[in-house]
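This week, look over our next protein:
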Amino acid sequence: MRHYLLAAAAAFTIGLTPAFAGDFHGYDPATFDGNLLPAENLMAMVKEAMSVRPPKNGTAYVIGFANLQRDIPFCALVEQGILEVAKAAGVEVVVADNRLDGATALTNAESFITRDVDFVIEFQTDAQFGATIMQKLNEANIPVVAIDIPMPGATFFGVNNPRAGFMGGSYLAQAAVDRYGMEAVMKGYFIEGELPQSGPIPAMRTGGQVAGFLAALPGFDESRVLKFDSKNTLEESFTQTKNLLAQIPPDVPIMGTAINDQATTGILRAAQQDGRTQITVVGLGADEKQTLASEADFVAAVGSFPERYGNSLIPIALATLAGQDLPDAILINHQIVTKANICDFYADMPCADVKTIDYTFPEDGFLAHLEALRKDPSLADVQNLIPAN
């Protein structure tokens, strides 16, 4: 199993903004390894929370979970993990589907208020609706944790966007050089699948991918960086990449990455259909395990481990209900997942005996990138989501 448990634990150690009051029945965001806590710990959390803030229905907590879109593999894994941990804790979860749409997310939040839930876990993509949703939930005195896309006043849990993006972009550049040679890569094209509707925070992820790629390839012609709106889906990414391929000569390397594994897969599928043989992509999420394991040109993914989100999100909800002073941002520590090490993170996936690159993280470039983010006026109110290093 190649030290699976040790690797998995290391993969989910989290970085955060300062100060948690202390251990809450086995949960401390500064040291939590992401493993499922024992049921007795979870039930002790519930008992303490009930002594501080009794359930509104008088018997058991009800948590509303508004999923980003339930049929996206990443989101399905997040939902499955939340439901499993909630069951172990004796907590009911009401699930809604935001369908990647702000207006739908607002309707779902209003339904949670009508349902009189005790807590809400929000996974919603439209930054334009975040403040309105939070205003309504605040007025109803319902605390919130927001997954991956921040909402004003909610605890943030999820992707360390600058670092995850920078890792993926720099790995992609180095992998492409290993496959095609520096001279060929410098004549190639880099395709980036963005998600502008989600605002400046997820943009730190895709911007980090571009910055990491360019940091690993000084002098790369930035006119060869082609960006598109992926809308977070494989299908839209496929369509937009097909359009971009008309701009790219047939005999040059193409490097691609995107906001998530699905959009990255869309880039790969479009290039394959177009007959491009020099295509290399790096995903973000590592939730498309079979694609990563089976596709030679899908060389790696930056792991976010969505199947383990629930192990943190339910304790965060219960700690909040118990009046614990949580950090306002809890960030995942990401790992590069490849065909050679996938079994270290997923026990059901075999590791392949394949050559991988000797990856070097461009630390100086990353620190310069972080400094530029701190000076970005659009990020002035979310400095806590920019890591210190």
Notes: The chain has two domains: 18-158+306-327, 161-303+336-385. The longest strand covers residues 279-285.
